[in-house]
Write a structure and sequence with these properties.
Number of strands: 3
Strand content: 5-15%
Number of helices: 5
Order of helices and strands: HHHEEHEH
Distance between the termini: 80 Å
Radius of gyration: 24 Å
Strand order of the largest sheet: 1-2-3
Structural class: alpha+beta
Largest sheet: 3 strands, mixed
Shape: extended
């Protein structure tokens, strides 16, 4: 039986979609995004086997390599900013060598734990000092507009 005959519908089943460059590009982009930001344990798809090889050397760089504090700071700030569950506007990030200190206020315990988990996942971080505190229930969140109004002496008085 030829390859063309294999693709003909059998007993009412639909013929599989042809593999086009656009379709492959979309799947590759989805795999890349999942690989970069997904869980540590790969998720297997029912439709296709795991396409990324599993190795034991991920995270092991050249001898003597230490990631610079500036790169750690940038990466952590980007990740905190991109996370939809953490309002990072009241979080201060300090990096000393490979240790990170988080201080400031967050609205709930979930955001507190999420911020710490994000910091721990950044490449090059060896320890996280979590000094984040929960914002009191009655206290309002600050916004950039509040800061501008306070500096100019305008806006609603509390």
């Amino acid at each position: 039986m030829s390859e063309i005959e294999d693709r003909r519908p059998h007993s009412g089943r639909a013929r599989p979609k042809p593999l086009t460059r656009a379709r492959l590009g979309i799947e590759a982009a989805a795999e890349t995004a999942a690989w970069q930001h997904g869980p540590a344990v790969p998720v297997r798809s029912v439709e296709r086997p795991l396409s990324r090889p599993i190795g034991t050397y991920r995270g092991r760089g050249p001898r003597g390599y230490v990631r610079s504090p500036a790169r750690i700071y940038e990466d952590l700030c980007d990740r905190l900013t991109d996370n939809p569950f953490v309002d990072a506007s009241d979080i201060e990030v300090l990096v000393a060598g490979t240790e990170v200190s988080l201080s400031g206020m967050v609205k709930d315990p979930i955001a507190l734990r999420q911020a710490q988990a994000i910091a721990e996942e950044v490449a090059g971080v060896t320890h996280v000092h979590n000094r984040l505190q929960l914002r009191p229930a009655g206290e309002r969140e600050t916004t950039p507009g509040d800061a501008v109004n306070a500096a100019l002496g305008t806006g609603a008085k509390r």
